[in-house]
Amino acid sequence: MPLLEFNKKGIYCPPAKVYLDPWKPVDKAIISHGHADHSRWGHKQYITHHTNVPIIKHRLGDIEVTGKAYNETFVINNVKFSFHPAGHIIGSSQIRVEHKGEVWVFTGDYKTENDGVAVPYEPVKCDTFITECTFGLPAFKWVSQAEVFNDINTWWAVNKAEGKTSVLFGYSLGKAQRLLKHLNPEIGKIYTHGAIENMTEVVRPFIDMPPTERITRETDKKAIAGNIVLAPPSAHGSIWIRKMVPYVTGSASGWMTFRGARRRRAIDKGFVLSDHCDWPGLLESIKETGAEKIISTHGYSDIFSRYLREQGYDARTEATQYEGELAELDSKKEEGEGAP
Questions:
Q1: Domain locations in the chain?
Q2: Is the dihedral of CA 56, 58, 60, 66 positive or negative?
Q3: Contact yes or no for 272/257 (Cβ under 8 A)
Q4: Which of 37, 114, 277, 320 could be bridged to 282 by S-S, CB 3.0 to 4.6 A?
Q5: CB 30 within 8 A of CB 95
Q6: Superfamily (CATH H level) for 5-140+275-329
Q7: 3-state secondary structure of 7
Q8: How many angstroms separate the CA atoms of 241 and 247, rounded?
């Protein structure tokens, strides 16, 4: 019997009788991070990193949840578990599982670039590595975020000089706070959609970010003009956004690598910025774990696993209900679901 197995409810650890990021209600769930495809409602007990506790309480309501620190070992039925930084979003973790000398690591979602918001990713040695591969194609190679944010702030400044409001789309948990952290408040004022402001208020105790102002029905349209507005993808094309006219839209996502994605969503400007690993990041992470067995989950899993087998790894795929950054392509998705 493997230490971890995939079944209809999620990733199950038989000796501990506990699930990792289950997508169906279970008695005990160990949660990697706060995005809705990984932390779902209905479990009797949740265990997660302590920074993620207020995030999932905000999203899920009154739940029974226990917080743990990074590198803190906790034991369930003689199986050792611990959380390790995933670098994906604030409070995100890899989950290490050890039993009878065997070590597995489940990444959840992760990225290797230090974004200045999440605790930076740390490689964890293991025998079997369960990795996402949202962007598991050679076409995905990120430029440094310093370059991306220089482009974003320049775009905002040009729009302001032309008397236009900059509306920048990003998911309310993770991407929005990363954008906010690196926007230049000297250019102008930063306004937020209510969904983003609500989540930002939850995580402000953990992150130093510029001040923001929530847009309400009473907000003066003239006051917004020339400034920047952070909004969730679902706000695009809504009645709410009409308050910003004249405006220019931008989207920050790994999918902006492809022009077609930007055209389909009628976005004026695309910024390639993802909270997931690119192709080189995935390969380097796998190498650093020292693992011989690799299980690829959400993303380009079949292509990615085939490449790994060609490189000599014992690699296979497993189906899950995790979405990675795919939900960014569907603005009708619930905010935060499958976010980067």
A1: 5-140+275-329, 145-271
A2: positive
A3: yes
A4: 277
A5: yes
A6: Ribonuclease Z/Hydroxyacylglutathione hydrolase-like (3.60.15.10)
A7: coil
A8: 9
Q: How many of the other CB atoms lie within 10 Å of CB of 294?
A: 23
pLDDT tens readout for residues 138-165: 999 999 999 999 999 999 999 999 999 9
From residue 48, give the alpha-carbon distance in Å to each of 25, 280, 296, 337.
16, 28, 22, 18
Tell me the two tokens of residue 37: 């495809």
CATH 3.40.50.10890: does it fit domain 145-271?
yes
Whether the full predicted model's pTM is greater than 0.90, yes or no, is yes
Q: Which residues contact 106 (CB under 8 A, 6 or more apart)?
A: 4, 11, 20, 21, 32, 94, 95, 97, 130
CA nearest neighbour of 66 among 29, 41, 36: 29
The first and second tokens of residue 6, run together, are 């995939």
Q: Write the burial class of residue 27 (CB in 10 Å: 0-12 exposed, 13-18 middle, 19+ buried).
A: exposed
Q: Are 125 and 97 in contact (CB under 8 A)?
A: no
In angstroms, rounded to a whole number, what is the distance separating the alpha carbons of residues 151 and 170? 16
Cα-trace Rg, the chain: 20
Amino acid at 123: P
Q: Which residues contact 187 (CB under 8 A, 6 or more apart)?
A: 153, 156, 157, 160, 228
Half-sphere exposure of 144 (CA within 13 A, CB side): 4
Q: Where are the beta strands (DSSP E) in the chain?
A: 5-6, 11-13, 18-20, 28-30, 45-49, 65-68, 74-76, 79-85, 93-99, 102-106, 128-133, 165-169, 190-192, 213-214, 228-231, 247-252, 269-271, 293-299, 314-317
pLDDT tens track for 18-71 = 999 999 999 999 999 999 999 999 999 999 999 999 999 999 999 999 999 999
**270, 256 contact by CB (below 8 A):** yes
Q: Which residue has the tokens 């909004």?
A: 231
For residues 230-254, average pLDDT: 93
Query: Cβ distance 12 to 30 under 8 Å?
Result: no
